Amino acid sequence: MTDIYKAKKDYKSLSDCYIRQIECYDSLLKKQVEQQSYNIRYSADAYKRQTEIASLNDENRWRWHINVMSLIILVVAALAVTLIIINIRKVKRLNKMIEARNAKLESANYEITSSINYARRIQKSALSTIESITNIFPDSMVYYMPKEIVSGDWYRVETLKGHIIIAEGDCTDTGVPGSLLTMMGISIFKDTVNTFLKDNAPMKASSMLDKMRQQVKKMFNSNDDDTEFDGGMDASIAVIDPQTRRLSFAAASQTALLLRDGVVTQLKGDSMRVGKFIRETDFTEQDVQLQRGDTLYIMNNGIRDLKNPDGERVISGRLEQFLIENNEKPMTEIGSLLHDEIHAWCQSSECDDITAIGIRVE
Q: What is the CA radius of gyration of the chain?
């Protein structure tokens, strides 16, 4: 159209044509700008939505992880609570079982302890009383300390045929086994004394120990080597004639102490017990002339076996020194002081059954 208008030299129409052309270009450019603006806004909105969607996805993933972890924690907690409840029930059942068993043990312990206490009363009734001993020896004492409720030691003081017989035995064990052997020892001692009385035999301490040994071996003799009893007891027997103050003494694995004028003399027994022994010989008879004021102590080895904190056996010399230092005191007071000394010594070592009989010759 512009070429036609140029040829006709119709400039007004040409100008109008240019104007329309420009307006058309402007309209197209405007539409392009608007399209580009729209595209930009659409892209921005799309990016924003994608960002929001991505954020939502991340949040959903975290929530999912949190939910899974929470579920796991809940499951673990539920299992833990279940195990705790099961264990609590088990503990309760076990506690009930333990209480029931403790009740049975307490009942059994009560019965055993009651039986042992009754055995102690029986055992003490078989021993000579302090009153009977003081009737014979006004100035005397007896120290008797079992390691357990019942003891493996025994002692008797008898007056027969014008003689005073003091016997003390230390059986091969302590506690219940020892207490059974003490009853055996007392029974054998009484049978021996009755035999000597019946036969009108001389009251010699060594002969009595020989007779007691025969009865111990006879009582526990067995054809079955597996059940043969090879034990016995350590023992001391002192026979005193109160008219002449003559002492007949014999001992099996024990030592008596005779205190005179501040000097201690040991009356050592034979190194064999009353019972089965490999190198068996007759017990040695010791004949001693007592004097007024002499003190005689017959005891088992429980005192001599005590040790100091260093494990050294120091009691023998210390005991003799103790008796010398306290000799002028009454026997009852010496017994109390001896109890304190032995209690102090026992703090450093395990004590055995301890028995000591002390008399002062009138």
A: 55
Domain boundaries, the chain: 1-121, 127-360
Within 8 A by CB and 6+ apart from 264, the residues are: 257, 258, 320, 323, 324
Say if CB 219 and CB 184 are below 8 A apart.
yes
pLDDT band per the 50, 70, 90 thresholds, residue 223: very low
Number of H helices, E strands in the chain: 7, 11
Cβ atoms 193, 208 nearer than 8 A: yes
Whole-structure pTM value? 0.72
- Provide the token pair at 227: 């059940």
The mean predicted confidence, pLDDT, of the chain is: 86
Structure token digits, residue 325:
């230092």
**C-alpha triplet 214, 215, 218: angle, nearest 5°:** 85
Contact 229, 245 (CB under 8 A): no
CATH 3.10.310.30 matches 127-360: no
